[in-house]
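Handout, tutorial session.
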Amino acid sequence: MKFTQDHEWLKTEGDVVVVGITKHASEQLGDVVFVELPEAGTEVSKGDEICVIESVKAASDIMAPLDGEIVEVNDELADNPGLVNEDPTGKAWFFKMKLADMTALDGFMDEAAYTKFIG
């Protein structure tokens, strides 16, 4: 897994990257009550706002970590947003994307660097 400074995790599955938020991020949000996901087929650029997460504390945006196309979304989150708190790095993935450039993943933190980043 790779990690962003925005507390997203990225996991490669063949030529697709699965994206979710870290346990640290889910703990900071508190109880998640709503998740708005992008549509499959959407072309995104790094930094585009593509998901909205609402919790009892606040609303947060998930930004596209890289350029590419959303190829699948986790529809289960719409019916069960609490999964984000229960299993943030497993069942609660947000979307899968095909990247314009897979080597762009090299610029992200590994788990040790992310752990140091969050203190």
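The second record follows below. Compare its token runs with those of the first.
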Amino acid sequence: MLATILIIVVVIIAAVLVLAATRPNDFVVSRSAGIKAPAEAIFPLINDFKQWPSWSPFEKLDPNMQRTLSGADSGNGAVYAWEGNSKAGKGRMEITNSVPASLVSLKLDFEKPFRANNTVDFTLSPSGDGTSVTWSMRGSRPFIAKLMGLFMNFDALIGKDFEAGLDNLKRATER
């Protein structure tokens, strides 16, 4: 009886590990929102890290978070590093591509609570009487993330924060 239970447990664990191994090696999380404001009004809030506290949901994870801005004042070469509680973690992001009123790309490096190196893009494009803003993040998914992804929906977890940030951008720029 004990041997049968042990075999069943080993088979279940092996099945979970094999299933995790078949998951994609990369991930993409993306959310979009229509904002009734010109891209020229939205772009500066994304392109300048000093403006992020006005709209980024990640700024509220730790009221005592330590922030360091360096490099360029805004745009290409602007750097934002942070260290906070277990929710905020520790990391650094740098604007690697800035095209006025249309694109801001970031290199995003997390150190805590886990190591990760991702790319983030904010794409702004004209849409009707406003601007369509898309916030996306992509990166590689190591085995442990694939395994955790079987039990957690990372797209939903990260996506809800992206949606909140886009709503904040909307409130900050729509008149």
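Points raised in discussion: The beta strands are 26-35, 66-71, 78-83, 90-99, 103-112, 116-127, 130-140.
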